[in-house]
Amino acid sequence: MLFNSLQFVLFFVVVTLAYYSLPWRGRWALLLVASCYFYMVFKPAYILILFLTIVIDYYAGIWLERTKPGASRKWLLIVSLISNIGILAFFKYFGFFTDSVVWLLEHANLDGPAQLVNRKAISLLNKVLLLFGQPSTTSFSIVDSILPIGLSFHTFQAMSYTIEVYRGNQKAERHFGIYALYVMFYPQLVAGPIERPQNVLHQFHTYFHFDFENLKAGLMRMAFGFFKKVVIADRMAEIVSHAYANPTEHNGLTLLVATVAFSIQIYCDFSGYSDIAIGAARSMGFTLMENFKTPYFARSITEFWRRWHISLSTWFRDYLYIPLGGNRVSQSRRYLNVFIVFLVSGLWHGASWNYVIWGGLHGAYQLMAGWRDRAFDRWGIRFPEENKAYQLLQLILTFILVMLTWVFFRNHKAPVANAFTILEKIIFSPFDGPLVTPFNTTELWFCVLLVAVLAVKEKFFLTIPTRNTVLFFILFALICFLSYLFGIFTSNQFIYFQF
Question: Angle between the 176-184 and 46-66 helix axes, to the nearest 10 degrees?
């Protein structure tokens, strides 16, 4: 079910009203049933995959808590992680890895083994397709169509539960329904935030009385999330789609504007989803973690990742970077750990070498920043950190570096060469022709105004005031009206739904 749809608005109203009318024992059941319905609207069969992982991890958590420290306890964790990663790997990366192996074998002049691997893989894929009522295939292109919505998100959330139980930071949840709700809670089921069990499991055991302040804050957060999605993100998407559909036919200026537009689009699209998710949960009394903190105001790539998709970046920090050694190892090993984390982060986003390159570039940025800082320390070079002009320069350079990596991210379904063609035009010939967009001049200036309003709001007003009830109703009605008046309602799916 898409957040930016009338169906979701009706769903939210009905579920929230029913939630406050029930005692605690009925509330968790209502939310679980509602979450199952929310997810099954996409494709009913996908609920079986979630149910399988929920059952595995539920019992794994109990067994981990009962088992004394030792090899057997570690193997229980490994089995749980492998089951989660295995399901994710098959549905998301099976075709990608098989194609990569076949490509390597063919380029090594091993055509026989390459054909054998391809046949065996297609045979296995067709057996799985039968379970989902899909037609047989002779290629891996159909794998994208059977990828369960939000699989990467709820897989990582489930993994965090078993890891925290193993570490002793979380007691195993004995209530199967509550644990299932932890994985399937509808506001953040499809695209996060990726929550930790310590943050939310206890909330599902809590009876929240109706609080009008919570409701107002939640509704206002949702309203602005809708505005960011349908008014800004989907409008920017038209500029981006126009240019990136045929990049070879456009000049550098058009591609540059489209890439800037995509930087705004993906932020408003994803942070808009997070706003709606956090707001929907807040309306019922639940508190979800913040996922964005004005990332485009960051003055370094490191700071950018402390502000962008916070639930994912902290997940990789706690469950991959630190177990690899974190900062407790040599300088060269620390750099390697950072690079590994960003490569895995790129692959987490999708089965495409463009995503891997995107992650690798962010890793390379981190390494180069570390080398630069060490060199400057050796040479005694200092910069005026408190100087406003210098801070602005840092902000602009960071945005440019991030923006250039978005070329690979947006180009994920096309050959890698396309992304390099776009970058070549942007960097070496940005002004070799007129700007060509689907919008007229007035509409383009309107886009600039929207971005300016967004920047001011995000920088100075992290939350829209709701304490004054009269002011709340005025602002809420105004935002809803502007969203309806200027919104683009074409059922555009949220970008991160595919992950």
Answer: 130
